[in-house]
Amino acid sequence: MRATGALFFSLLCHVAADRSAQVNISRMLGQQAERVMVLGEWEERWEQGRIGFHQPTVHKMLEMNLDKVLNGRTGVRFFFPLCGKAVDMKWLADRGHSVVGVEISEKGIRQFFEENNMTFSEEPVPEIPGAKVFKNPEKNISLYQCDLFQFSSSIAGLFGAIWDRGSLVAINPKDREKYAALIVSLMDKDCRYLLDTFLYNPDQYQGPPFFVPGEQVKSLFGSSCNVELLQSVDALTDRQRDWGLDSFTENIHLVTLKNSSAAN
């Protein structure tokens, strides 16, 4: 009986701890829940050159986890939400893959092609009034200049891989469920979605990038996808210290559709 009582007490402690953690996560998410950045603010950042989020080299987390994303496949079709001018796009195209990106800033898209010494064509997107698509001559890189939430699979099809570096963490927190639904709708049955998120104390910094805990990643994608945490690393640098942070963790998740070969 004593053993049973001790086990029951231990279970109660675990339940209490879990509830306490959930309450704390909810409180932390609440710190940024009403934070809103309109599209014009992002375009303004590009015009003013305030793009500290841009990395001039291939993202090390993509390099380290590329084999897990490819899963033995060649010629994979990659989607880059909020792509900016990420050099990762050319890096993948040079390796025989194709890339489709979406970015609100036309300046960012033009800079991508110009800085990589690539010529490009430009044409309207009939399905999205005012939108444009920019393509290199080989047509293995297509970048759509539009609101991400106006993009859909009817415009560019489904994708075998998605690299989300700085997208989920950049969109307004209130739009995360809509964002997750869009991403899932773009995933082909064998799609492998590499997702980069950050953990920090939102009492110290309002974002973006925003605080996205693993529990929310599972809440957003868990009903239709398997979510695996691949890496969790200390990513604190002077840049984050300048934001007022004393800790900053980078998490890399692999998200695959349930009941798909990509989950194996």
Automatic annotation (TrEMBL):
Signal peptide region: 1-17
Keyword Secreted: no
Keywords of this entry: Cytoplasm, Methyltransferase, S-adenosyl-L-methionine, Signal, Transferase
PROSITE patterns named among the record's database cross-references: SAM_MT_TPMT (PS51585)
InterPro entries: SAM-dependent_MTases_sf (IPR029063), Thiopurine_S-MeTrfase (IPR025835), TPMT (IPR008854)
The reaction(s) this protein catalyses: S-adenosyl-L-methionine + a thiopurine = S-adenosyl-L-homocysteine + a thiopurine S-methylether
Location of the protein in the cell: Cytoplasm
GO biological process: methylation
Domain of life, source organism: Eukaryota
Main location: cytoplasm
Entry GO CC: cytoplasm
Molecular function GO labels: thiopurine S-methyltransferase activity
The protein's Enzyme Commission number: 2.1.1.67
Family per similarity comment: Belongs to the class I-like SAM-binding methyltransferase superfamily. TPMT family.
Protein name: thiopurine S-methyltransferase
Species this chain originates from: Oryzias javanicus
